[in-house]
Specification:
This is CopG family transcriptional regulator. With about 70 residues, this protein is mainly α. It has 3 helices and no strands. The N and C termini lie far apart (about 60 Å).
């Protein structure tokens, strides 16, 4: 699907710099940024789920450790 991305001059300069550092096109740099953002959001959801699971499962143990 085609899409036009309108950036300010400073945003375009930043995207150009990032693309050069990644040795890829601006298009590919935007795709990588989207994928990285999605992966980070997924990891954060996993961490939140696991933390909740451990806190519920080990509630008694954590309370005993806090009292020690």
């Amino acid at each position: 699907m085609a899409m036009t991305l309108r950036l300010s001059e400073s945003q375009d300069e930043l995207l150009t710099k990032i693309a050069q550092e990644l040795n890829c096109s601006k298009h590919q740099a935007v795709i990588r940024a989207l994928e990285a953002f999605d992966a980070k959001a997924h990891r954060e959801k996993q961490i939140e789920y696991i933390t909740k699971l451990v806190l519920e499962r080990d509630k008694e143990l954590l309370e005993r450790l806090a009292d020690a």
